[in-house]
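Whether sequence alone determines local backbone shape is best considered at the level of individual chains. For completeness, the protein is quoted in full, as a sequence line and a line of structure tokens:
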Amino acid sequence: MKAVGYIRVSTDHQDLSRQESLIRQYCQKNNYCLIKIIGEKVSGAKKDRKSLAELHILDKSLADILVVSELSRLSREADYANVIFIINNILQNGLDVVFLDEESKVYKAGKSLDIIDIITLAIGAKTAADERMKIATRMKTGKTTKIQIEPYMYTGGTAPYGYKIIDNPLYHGQIDNIPAKRLITEDEYQMSNVRLVFQMVLNGTTLRDIAEHLNKSGTLTKQNKPFCETSISKMIKNPIYNGRRRFKGLPLVIKKIISDEDWNKAQICVSQNKLFKDIATSNFNPLKGIVFCPCGYALMLHQMSPRSGQKYYVLACCRKNNKEYRKKCRNMGIKSDVLFKSVWNCVKRSLTLTEYSEKSNKKSEQINTIITQLNQQLVNNHKSMDNIKEEMRHIENAIIKVSDIPSLVDKYKIDYKKKQDEISSKEDSNKAIEEEITKNKQQLERIQKSQAYKQLHDMTDKEKSEIYKNVLDRVVYYSETMFTGFIVIDYKNGLQNIVVSKRHYNNLTLLLPTTFKFNKETRKVVIPLHKHDAKQPYNLDFIKEQEFSLAELSSSYDLEEWKINIDDK
């Protein structure tokens, strides 16, 4: 009789020779001619295994019997009906089947399994599936325990850029209680590139320029490919460089390559560096990322070519060329030269005002108070996380102790998952708090810088752009007619300038008093007025606010007193 053997182990590290030896001994004892052994190193829980596909095409023309060392080698699926189907299919193809852990029982070819056979095989399949779950639980909890002891333990896959995989010199087998067989450790050359990338981001370099710099020096990624914006972005966002590693939702603490302050700044700088990228060498927009249309979209430079032949640039909504959107946004453009000069003139004036310094000091106090409160929230969260981690350690020990009682294991696994979710929630909260702290610190830094500006003459557009980023929060142009409307300038310290730009042969520009406010909904100027109450003549005048459109403002006030010379350098 001809026989085919089937052997399987779950991983590449396990050996097939023991199962092969058992099958050869059985065949020799029963005078079977072993013509082939089908073997594979793959988990028994997987359905789409090549070895199973090969078993399904076996028929009596090739062999008379299939010899398997034990039922668990054939499958460890939790779907017991599928296990029985596999065996029955082999029988119907004309082969006997025998499992060497019960070699006295030979399932005969061509016969359907009876109820006793089905029950026996189902019980065996369930036992195999339960054993797989028990092994998986032990491996998971064991690995979790080990990585908590050694947070640099290698857990598989490719190490992040900046790290390499090494054999643990202290590891001499399982019996010495050294948890990690292999470790990830710093690669000095790659880590120097990581530090360089973060420094370049903090200095205002864009991701594209950083990638170009690394590629020019011949530096490659872990996959031996050139760097691109995406690979640099992933590097910047990987918390492992900030000393935070995760395994199965479990937070681990390792050495910080990048400090908390630099890490948080880098996350914000990535978007800002992209926002303020100077793509064009001419027609530079110093207000890029700051100047907006009332609809919320940015104002962009558009070249105008009139019949006179003298080209000029207009700042208009970036969606102006979209016919459908143009029906929603009726805001018209403004000459870029007028808006740029108006904003610069206002910024220069404001930075020298006592009122600006007072508002800056008040804003600084508010920001410092917020930072203090956020830091206290971080302290409270870290205390809570320490308590949760201690509870998780108790649960891990309990799982190992009751690993033979599936119901208790399942209960503890649910509790453990809840604790992991709590840790993840706290980590997300901490990340949001840290980002908020960084934003507030950067805002505080900008306010302090703005108070230090003294020399504001003969500056280039790029130098002005840097000042705008530190000083301005937002600039919005509200049009009334073509090239006529309000320029509303909001500063980071809360100050607001309202500029009126009127289409005129010399482009009349007015800077309204800082006591005036702007109603963005009605697009009108709000002016506080003193009113006399005739019913109570002995009372002091009270202040009432009134709104004025541009036309009403022109008819009610002498606008010349607010005129500014925007050509002043």
